[in-house]
Design goal:
This protein is mainly α. Helices cover 75% and strands 0% of the residues.
Length: 437
């Protein structure tokens, strides 16, 4: 089935139903045990209190209560599930896995526990083990449509980046067996993006915003899509409203800063990004974005300070090293710029722009053979332009290789087109001299 048909089916099914899935992660107290066992377990006041604590997100209390309940009955599957969930919420993943597995040892087909274990494996970057749990739930008729739908959705989310056709099929399976949710529309939009269908993606995200469902997530998705399409003004409109509604969201603020900067509003972008980075000083990507915008808007000293700080956290980040070098060049600190730029291309040799920056800094420090070496590396990855022609010509000229200098100076004049008046004036006079050498 072709994507347009899929898109029509999915959007038709994903009608922004207000139905919610019965899952513990959303606060449900649904129990994984069979109905007979539920009746017996409901009499256990400790587990009732445990689940009340989970509901109120007091996981330490829930851990303590569930532990007490299991002292009396170590094989109580409800207690093992509750304890596993509390341990997972507290970050004790090994203990959570142990308790989930104990529950499954007692009762192997327990869809809710299998879903929880699958999500735990995902958080541990164990996709194969997670997939095994989710697939098992999709095959268990006792799971019912709602839990099977959760499993299909989990599989669709897993396959989103690497296997779009499978993700589409899995989402359709979920819609066939369970009520639709706003998350389905969000996932539909992402599937549309990955299927090169931006119109359907935008429709899905705007549907969510119109219905006031998953507003931060839909705004971020729509903002990302609009920025990718270079529709910066539209992105600013969407993202400003989203940031006002959900202040302090680093994803939205970073996107807004990006959209503002690309819409010619650098000072406004800096205000947004500085606020976001102050709230999340350990966010390396956000810090780099702030520094990049500062560098591009006449604040290279501020940018250099941020880049230097980021490198203490991620010293082998070639992109940050290259950007740091570029900010030092803007401050005319050419010798200092050579150090991070050389480190950047050593880590990531295919960085054409970094090689260009290296060549420029080497030229300003009169290392003309290095200029030629750097430009030779650059042209492996990027086409020549007027600036590189000028650097080639100048380096050859300084090295008294006049034939090559004349050739590149003439290429420079042909490419410059009046955009570099000072250098063009200089080169024209130099060409006259070289022709007589």
């Amino acid at each position: 089935m072709k994507w347009p048909v899929y898109a029509a089916l999915i959007l038709a099914a994903a009608t922004l139903s207000t139905a919610s899935l019965a899952q513990r992660s959303a606060g449900s107290q649904a129990s994984p045990v069979t109905s007979g066992a539920q009746t017996a377990a409901a009499e256990n006041s400790l587990l009732d209190q445990t689940e009340a604590a989970i509901e109120s997100q007091d996981y330490t209390k829930a851990q303590s209560l569930a532990t007490k309940a299991l002292e009396a009955n170590p094989k109580d599957v409800r207690g093992l599930y509750d304890l596993g969930f509390a341990e997972q919420a507290l970050g004790h993943t090994d203990l959570a896995e142990t308790n989930y597995r104990k529950a499954l040892d007692v009762q192997p087909q327990m869809p809710q526990v299998q879903l929880a274990l699958g999500r735990l494996f995902l958080s541990q970057n164990k996709p194969d083990e997670a997939r095994k749990q989710f697939l098992a739930v999709t095959q268990e008729s006792a799971a019912g449509g709602t839990l099977q739908g959760e499993a299909w959705r989990a599989l669709a989310t897993m396959d989103l980046a690497s296997d779009v056709p499978s993700a589409r099929d899995e989402l359709l399976h979920a819609l066939q067996v369970s009520p639709t949710t706003p998350e389905d529309t969000l996932l539909t939009g992402r599937l549309a993006e990955l299927s090169n269908d931006p119109q359907t993606a935008e429709q899905a995200y705007r549907n969510l915003l119109t219905a006031k469902k998953l507003v931060p997530e839909a705004s971020a998705a729509l903002g990302r899509l609009l920025i990718k399409q270079n529709r910066y003004e539209d992105a600013v409109t969407v993202l400003q409203a989203a940031v006002e509604a959900a202040p302090g969201n680093p994803v939205l603020e970073a996107q807004l800063g990006t959209a503002l900067a690309n819409n010619g509003k650098g000072p406004e972008a800096l205000v947004v990004l500085e606020k976001a980075y102050k709230a999340e000083p350990d966010n390396v990507a956000l810090g780099k974005l702030l520094a990049d915008v500062a560098n591009q808007n006449g604040n290279p000293a501020e940018a250099s300070e941020i880049y230097a700080g980021l490198l203490t956290k991620d010293p082998q980040n070639a992109d940050i090293l290259a950007s740091y070098g570029a900010s030092l060049i803007r401050q005319e600190r050419y010798a200092a710029a050579l150090v991070p730029l050389e480190a950047a291309v050593k880590i990531k040799p295919d960085m054409g722009d970094a090689w260009a920056s290296l060549a420029f800094a080497a030229s300003r420090t009169e290392q003309y053979q290095a200029v030629l070496d750097d430009l030779t590396q650059r042209k492996k990855y990027l086409p020549e332009n007027a600036s590189t022609y000028f650097l080639w010509g100048l380096a050859y000229d300084k090295l008294r290789r006049y034939k090559e200098a004349l050739e590149y100076y003439q290429l420079f004049l042909a490419a410059a087109g009046g955009k570099f008046p000072d250098q063009e004036f200089q080169v024209r006079h130099r060409v006259v001299v070289l022709k007589h050498k």
